[in-house]
Amino acid sequence: MTEGGRILIVAEGDARSHDFHKTGVILRDILKEDEGFDAELVERMDAITPEKLGSFKACIFYAHGPVEGYSRGKLTAEQESLLMSFVKKGGGFVGIHCASIFKGNKNYLAMLGCEFKGHAPYQEFQVNIADRDSLVTKRLQDFSVSDELYFVDHDPAVHILATAFWQGKSQPMVYIKECGKGKVCYVALGHDGAALLHPSFRKIVGRAARFVTGFREDKTVSGAVIGYGGAFNMGKAHLDMMNAAGIKGIGACDLNARRMEAVKKDFPAITTYTDYKKMLKNKEIGLVSVITPHNTHAPIAMDCLAAGKSVVLEKPMCLTTKEATEMIRAAKKNGVMLSVFHNRRWDGDFLAIEEVVKKGMIGNIFHTEIFIGGYGHPGYWWRSDKKISGGALYDWGAHLIFWTLGLIPSGIKNVTGFFHKRVWHSVTVEDQTQAIIRFENGAYADIQVSSIAAIGKPRWRILGETGGITDEWGKGSFHMSSLIQGVRSESDIKYKPSFWNEYYVNVADHLMLGEKLEITAEKARRVIGVIEAAEKSSKTGEPAVVPYE
Q1: Within this chain, do residues 351 and 281 fall inside the same structural domain, yes or no?
Q2: Residues 295-347: tens digit of each pLDDT
Q3: Neighbours of 191 (CB within 10 A)
Q4: Residue 197 sits in the same domain as residue 272
Q5: Number of H helices, E strands in the chain
Q6: Assuming Cys at both sites, which of 43, 107, 442, 496 could form a disulfide with 348, CB separation 3.0 to 4.6 Å?
Q7: b/e burial code for range 243-268 (CB count within 10 A of at least 16 → b)
Q8: Count of the separate structural domains present in the chain
């Protein structure tokens, strides 16, 4: 997050068409929370005075002029002149959605670069990113949004960053332009609160504010991986995702020299190492991803953090909350990033369930169950060795716990655990593990991982106050039962596409643009805390609390 200075938000217009107060508050909160701006909201156009405007770096309009049945909002000649002078002398201006409806203010519209001509019905449509090199749309992917699709006549000289199609014609959704010494951005999206809170819209608006206030991305980051084992080929996957996100992969390390031969085939220009401490002396490396057995995560990460490198740890973060806390403190002390590769936060099945829950389609969740397993030997490799892996709940269980904590917005009251060792005595991990989380809001979650489940169960069973969800592994959709005004509806909801690359896109945006980190070390520590508390409870027979809750 950057400290961007002061921004004035003007939100005024006909309440029959938009909720100007609500959208103004949302915009103010986005700029404050996401970008660190000192944002002030005013809800009358007459607040635009020389004294007022002179104390701000930029102005954002979520406002429109007079329309049929609404006479307020017209920019006076003095206000129009003041805005023009403000921008031409170096001030920034962002117009959002209805800001192009100012018929009669020709100078203002010339400064903005477009004029409203109409809009399509409120519906879902795709926004296509036309320029991924601009600060405003860097690393953004095409996205779908429910909104009003605006039609505008625009100055041919504007630089279009995003478009949408209507009846075969491309319509500009986001563009930038210059006006004297100042910068202008127009975002046609944003009809209501739901559209404004769309993750891509939030990012575009925040970056638009930074663009018009003169922020430039001038930082680059190079990355490396520690661990290039053949299992799942995750070393290559991490480097591929780094490179795709604009983090140049320049180093790789593995104790096995043969694996470094594989690196050279995959990435001929990369520098290879068999001693990661030698690799850490390379000052060009700013980010290191640790892809090694679980019990080595913490000691390796501590060396990386001490060397001033930002760190991505493969999940699970580590084996104990003590280790997690030591790493968090070391990252803060050295002023670097620490994150955990919970890539399945972007699995399409979870994204679809998350959307339904956030939209309130099943009401507040009070009960969840999630399960993975079957009946079969867990294998004879390091993941079956409890001293190395931590136990059966540390592998897929880490994903299940992370998902669960993301769906229930509440602190954890305690955890009850049941761990079984009954069948597979040739390995040291548990045969079945179970963690029951009791949340402070009264909800609870039952998480099970088993290799002795002769009879299985659905992956998800989620109960809300007005509906529920069941989901089977690999079905392509989940079933939802929902009660709307007393009427029960049954539907199958298709999974969304998965976007694992979004993990490294977010890391790149954080390191190079200062944007919020999605998977913080503190979030990942909660997962370890639940696992640790579950095992403690299984031994004592009593519920256990999670540290740092």
Answers
A1: no
A2: 999 999 999 999 999 999 999 999 999 999 999 999 999 999 999 999 999 99
A3: 22
A4: no
A5: 16, 25
A6: 496
A7: eebbbbbbbbbbeeeebbebbeebbe
A8: 3
